[in-house]
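Before a colleague's protein record goes any further, I have to sign it off. I want your independent view on whether this chain really folds as the tokens say. The record follows directly below this note.
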Amino acid sequence: MTTALPLGTHDANWLEDPTHRAWLTAHRESLLDFYQPQVCDPDGGYAWLDSTGQRMPDKGRQLWLGARMLHVFAVASMMGRAGARDVVQHGLDFYVRGQGHDATYGGWFPVVGGDSPSDAKELYGIAHVLLAGSSALQAGFDDGLILIDEATALIDRYYWLENDGLCLEAYDRTFTQLDPYRGQNANMHMTDAYIAAFEATGRRQYLELAERAAAGLSGSEQRAWLDRLEAEGISRGNITIVIGNGMHRPSTAAERIEMFGEEILRDYPVLDHDCEDSGSLTFIGRSETGVDVFVNGAFFRADLRIVTGLVESHFMAGLSGGRKAICPGLVDKRTIEKFHSPAFLESPFAQNLILRQNPCHEESLAIARTVGVDFILNTTLDRDMRLTGVFAGDLEAAHEAACDLIRETVSVPVEREYDIILTHGGYVGRNHYQAVKAAHNALPAIAKGGIMILATDNRDEEPIGGPEYKSLLHMLKIQGADRYLKMIEAPGWRFTKDQWEPEMWAKVFRKIDEERFFYCTHTIPRETYDLLPGRCGLDFLAGEGWCSPVQAVREMVENALRFAVADYRKKGIEPSVAFIREGPYAIPYLATEKATAR
């Protein structure tokens, strides 16, 4: 949750910054010191360690963790670290000749011992064994080749699908019962493992398999999916792609190329949904919540309705993906207005990761059920935009599975509320409109009246947002959080596009004063920022001369943090400070509180 990085000099190539390189070396050694030798379980294999470095026997000896440890210490041994070879040999003994290896049916047990031992044969663990064996072989351990050859034989015999260029997920111990789930996380690790095996053995087959797996995980799979539909008898002329814009502007030509590629745009019609074009909407009846449902006609008239989407935490609907592709993605303006109304958004359940009793989720799901969806394909990503899961099938079941993964991976317990919070906009913070997600998501971690510093790259063509958003945001600055809410709740108020986003900013400014919010970006000029709430990061630049955007934002953040600390010290308070490394992708919560609804 919290970390501190040395910022070093302002060289253009910060990766070669000596200060940064020294920090990396020290951090690497501190991690290896933490694990060595405690990670070596006396009963064989590698132990799960708690935050103090104590072994946790209840966790058992887990294959993915053990194989990663073997890989890491094999690399460390090649770097000359004392004692690393002993750690590697300890793992090889366990996975080549010990309890970690299934001498009866082949392969390796995912969990040995502990409270929940398992004998399933999972591709995820086998991929890590292939990686570990490759690193061990390069480090001079002949047993590494034994792991490589057995892992390769198992993958070839049971997991690899030649037509797909990807692998199956898991079997029972005897390789007779196939798990129906198919994801892409294990296949992603297979790509890394194949490359490592090629480097260790020189066998070109591994490089070719890595290239095929990478192709299956990349955008080319998008075309393969369309080709599969055609192979099943659906002619190309009967396939239409509809972009669920909700109330947002139409996509640009450049954005379409980025999303689909020129080949798909050439071969298939791509339509933008327009929530205000009554001619493109179809009335299909009332939802179970009593709402008149108007939906995109091109989508509704299709014999086969497939929706795609990304599942991540959502500060209104709980989580994105699934039903949101329909509502608000493909419905009429009036329905979108209700979805974004204060009556919904001010509910205590209209919150990150919460679905039960969340009015946004319940309305969206009711409408999606009314419309009817035959198949969904949802994905999940990590903070570096790497694929972590693919969930396909039933509208509700597949989406729920994705939501479970996101809750598990993005929830971050914190022991207290901090006086100063530093966070960032991540990839999503492409403009001020979207950056509110990072500020809002940080609220559980900041103390009432604290200081929040938000660094973001507002790289969008319009770095703030549309004209309605700008006007409403200025109104928020003038009226304040409480009066803004009263204004949009008033009976005579005319619902205005984008009014919901300043409403979410208002939630931020109910907990911290507007002047204690520092917004650091290089793309919004000072004269424009004066119309926006919060303090402009440009106030914290020492000079007016030119510097790179990275240098500028770094200086803003450094000086803003110094200012914030000094502000507290003037009052005789030594402030607590936290940096949310994951920015908008982490959802902190007080460890003393439990979610009331999920």
